[in-house]
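Per reviewer request, we include the raw input and output of the structure prediction for the construct analysed in the revised manuscript.
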Amino acid sequence: MTFKTLLASVALSAFVVSPSFAMDPINIAFAGPEDASVDGEYVFAKTFKDTIAEHGVDVTIHPNGTLGKEDERLDQTSQGLIEIDLGSPAVLFKMSKSAPSLYLPFLFQSEKQWDDVIAKSSILESINEDAAKYGVRVPGFNMRGGLVGIFTTDIPVTKMSDLKGVRLRAQNGDQIKFFESWGAKGTIVSFAEVPNALQTGVAQGYFNPPSSAIKARHTDMLKHFTPLDAMPVARVILMSKDWYDALTDEERGWVDEAYDKALAANRAWSAEYGAAAINQLADLGVSVDPLEPGEREKFVKAATAIWTEVGDKDVIEKIQTALK
């Protein structure tokens, strides 16, 4: 082979190589474990990885908060150091005034209702207008499986008055307002510190779905669960806007396809796991204590009375319109 022939061969090889190999590896970070049996975010991440791998794109999954806490991962996503972060709604609240209204207790009764509102309304567009200022794109939300109720360490709750004076772990001040409307007290504790708070009595329970207590292995401390069916548990999917915008049309198509399949896998997992999780509680020594007749309506009335203290009135009305 002559030198000119060799050069021609190299040039031809470079030309015919699939453009997928030109796309940089993708990092997906999240707080949970690499365990598809208990974590819907990992289901999303693994499906995304497997789907886009068909185009020769490498994906590295970083579980268990190994790339930092929620705020740290948001900063890295804003800077393009993390391409996709599966984060807490709390980081979204810092970016968008529309977001908190999606998380009001008793506004949504199912994951399907949530998805229908996102599809029918302009709320996601409003969220993305705000998030873009932070270098972030929000394509949608992951579900954790099941609907939210109240866990307690030693006090069975079958009516709202049972919560009087009970200290519930809160994510933020807004959540405390809802707890106080039910007669309980709230104390802000990071999720990582929840075991210590429960063991020392700083908190006597929390407001979460069965899946959260099972995944976090809090069932050794939490002995009662009251199904409120208060809301689905949606985590937020964050993408680096600079990264996504810089993709070619073809690459963006691969990412969109992987996202769609990953979201569908998350929803299928959530539907199955959410139904099974509450039945697992008994096996783990947790008593499921249903509310007495008429008691759920008391929780709903108290919560809805302060919706506009926490959420945006116009956004709430848009959600309610989309729910009709």
